[in-house]
Amino acid sequence: MKLRWIASYGPAFVLAITLLALWELYVRAGLISATTLPMPTAIAQALFANWDIISVHTLQTLFETVIGLSVAILLGAGLAVLLDLSAWVRRAVYPLLVTSQTIPMVALAPLLVLWFGFDLGPKIIVVALYCFFPIAVACADGLMSTDPDLLKLLQSMRASRWEMLWLVRLPGAMPAFFSGLRIAATYSVTGAIFGEYVAAYQGLGIYMETSYNAHAVVLVFAAIVVTAVLSLLLFGFVSLIERIALPWQQEAQARFRLK
Q1: pTM
Q2: What angle do CA 162, 165, 167 make, to 5 degrees?
Q3: How far apart are CA 213 and CA 54, in angstroms?
Q4: Residue 153 and residue 167: Cα distance in Å, rounded?
């Protein structure tokens, strides 16, 4: 197990350490000002020294992220099922779903603040909009890719459409659903921070903005590090849930690697 973990993540770890070391040496050599690009060690020191303040903003951003991602899961999965059950709804809604992604969030976010105020609502909506599309599309594609032989078998047993959905289509769509959810999880923290940039009293987004305005670039980088860690943790949490919910999928992937 340890050898497999080292083989999977060892190269990425070595590359990350190498890049950080080169970054540190580049700044220490005086090739760029430390106030413009702080050294990794300075960022780590600033992160630990200001963790009591950063942690408060981190919890606020995480709260917005979790709620927004949960809303996106409910809406995305629900719409995917609706698109699968009705061909007419799919032809009518799917083009609009794709078109919605062409609307720039930088233009929509201020309107959300105008409509819903400075409370939690606009941030949750922004996160949900960031995460909704990959979940809905991945889940819809997974439902459409159901093995037709299994559907014919259930039809021969006089199963209803809801029984086929519950027994075959939804379980078969779970790998695609989790693929979309992993993508959405990486977007979710970014969505929350963007919403905080537009209007917020607390959160990593507003912390970055105030730090930048105070010319404390090292604190901006410290908040960026926390943002990256949150995204990785959410990605890992989704992957863990997938391993628990779909053990057969992991076994199939393990057999594929051994070939």
Answers
A1: 0.85
A2: 105
A3: 16
A4: 12
Of 61, 73, 77, 82, nearest to 189 (Cα)? 61
CATH superfamily, with its number, for domain 39-258:
MetI-like (1.10.3720.10)
- Tell me the per-residue pLDDT of 54-66, one tens digit each, with 9 for 90 and over: 999 999 999 999 9
Instruction: Give residue for tokens 């609307």.
Output: 103
HEC states along 89-145?
A: HHHHHHHHHHHHCCCCHHHHHHHHHHHHCCCHHHHHHHHHHHHHHHHHHHHHHHHHC
Token digits of residue 230: 């949150």
What contacts 21, CB < 8 A, 6 or more positions away? none
Considering all CA atoms of the chain, what is the largest pairwise distance in Å, rounded to the nearest integer?
A: 75
Question: Is residue 35 classed as helix, strand or coil in its secondary structure?
Answer: coil
Contact 211, 219 (CB under 8 A): yes
Rounded distance, CA 143 to CA 94, Å? 14
Find the DSSP H helices in the chain: 2-28, 40-49, 51-85, 87-100, 105-116, 120-144, 148-156, 161-164, 170-198, 204-213, 217-245, 247-258
Which residue is it, tokens 């989704």? 238
Q: Mind listing the pLDDT tens digit for each residue in 157-187? A: 777 777 777 778 888 888 889 999 999 999 8
Q: Report in angstroms the alpha-carbon separations of 250 from 1, 170, 232, 253.
A: 14, 18, 20, 5
Ramachandran category for residue 158: left, alpha or beta (phi over 0 → left; psi -120 to 50 → alpha): left
